[in-house]
Amino acid sequence: MSLLLFDRTRSALVLSSVVGFSMLSSIYVSPLLGGFVDHFQKRHVLMVCSLAQAVLVVLLGISVASAVPGYVVLFAVVVLAGAIDSVLAITLQAVIADLAEDGTLVQANAFVSLVQGAPVVLGPAIGAALYSVTSFTFIVVLDLLSFLMAALAAIQVPLAPAVKGGERWFRLPFSGARTGLRVLLGNADMRSSQLLYSLSNFGNGLPAGLLPVYVLLVSNSSTTALGAFGVASALGAVASALLLGAVRVPGRRFVLVVAGLGLAALLGRLPLVLVSSVAAVVVVGFLRSFCLGASNSPLLAIWQRATPKEVRGQVFGARRLLAQAPYPLAVWLGGLLAESAAPSSQASQLHAVVALILVGVVIELVSVVVLLLTGCLARLEQTGGEQVPAGSR
After folding, report:
1. Which of 153, 166, 219, 361 is buried deepest, with most CB atoms within 10 A?
2. How far apart are CA 360 and CA 331, in angstroms?
3. Under the GO molecular function aspect, what terms does this record hold (predicted)?
4. Cα–Cα distances in Å, from 75 out to 10, 17, 333?
5. Looking at the structure, do residues 112 and 181 belong to the same domain, yes or no?
6. Region for residue 220 given its phi and psi (left: phi exceeds 0; alpha: psi -120 to 50; beta: otherwise)
7. Which domain holds residue 260?
8. How many of the other CB atoms lie within 10 Å of CB of 71?
9. Where are the alpha helices (DSSP H) in 71-161?
């Protein structure tokens, strides 16, 4: 879609706006969506979302491929697609918590990450290759078939015991959003763990939008280096998912989380402050994604076991908002600070980016140290989730 849209518009603004609109719906309405996940059978949610994606991909294809693309329709479809992706992510987290044994929960989460991450590595290359030899319509048809197959696969998800009153397909979402936020913020360990993780994500996002600029500056504007950095980052996430999926790592889960977050800052960002080379950029991109990926699966497992089953969707939706909402704001702030601090010379631009990378590393390390000192995540891991946390009623 990106290639065809750029062919038609030659506008980077249109492409960035599409990404921004998708992020808007995927992150900022997730507490509302979590209530729907808990209200319906997970099988039905997965099937309906997959079928809705099939419809949206057809509408998206028609909008993009038309002689005069209707941007209002395009953005509306992208917003809906982002919301559906959010529902799917929340639902899968809840389903895995129901199906997997406690001892294999990290491995199950890693496998899901692998299934979701592999297309990120392979998808753009396959899509670009198909676009060069076939038509855009053919790619849309393949996309459509994949979503229909996903809807059929969802039939394998077991139904939960029937609840009194059954399913009602009309529901005001605000009660679910309030419940999720109330449960999360009402429990001291949940609240502290999540806010510290959100702080870490803010430090992650502060230099994130400037990393392509950094790569281009240290490589004399080499697009090959930029591509290598992107591929290495994607491969790091896939490699960590493969390792955690294949090997059951012993010990406490919170240790893996803290180690992953700390090493992601020390190995995945700090070397960029010390060494300016293309090789360092590629290695750092791989290591950071690997470390963050290695922390995500055990962190999710902690939350899956600590959250009561009946409110998992609502809490996961609230957690998604609190975890990811600071990221785009930090990316925007980092770009603003770099632009205002650096004159036009490349040396000044590089110094500004390096300074923001260092600030981001400090923020991430502070959040990790406080996470260790307070012990909130360690205590959260010991929570069984049989009772609704304080503040949920």
Report:
1. 361
2. 11
3. transmembrane transporter activity
4. 17, 8, 24
5. no
6. left
7. 176-383
8. 14
9. 71-99, 105-133, 136-153
